[in-house]
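Field log, afternoon session.

UNIT: design team B
ACTIVITY: writing a sequence onto a fixed backbone
BACKBONE:
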């Protein structure tokens, strides 16, 4: 039986997977920002960029922001 306008269980699962994959880079970027040190207010700026622009902000962080991290000197 096909009901027009009805969402079935497979469509719900597919929607949840797509939403999860959309938020995954954002969560990874936020964890990386919070675990590392930055100069000045760069950490706050990157957190705000990632939170307000979600997927695009996370992509920008991985392209630009990872170069702004302070390198730790572990010997």
């Amino acid at each position: 039986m096909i009901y027009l306008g009805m969402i079935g269980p497979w469509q719900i699962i597919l929607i949840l997977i797509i939403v999860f994959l959309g938020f995954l880079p954002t969560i990874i970027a936020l964890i990386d920002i919070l675990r590392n040190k930055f100069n000045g207010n760069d950490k706050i700026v990157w957190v705000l960029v990632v939170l307000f622009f979600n997927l695009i902000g996370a992509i920008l962080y991985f392209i630009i922001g990872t170069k702004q991290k302070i390198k730790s000197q572990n010997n």
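LOG NOTE: The chain has a mean pLDDT of 88.
NEXT ACTIVITY: expression trials, pending approval
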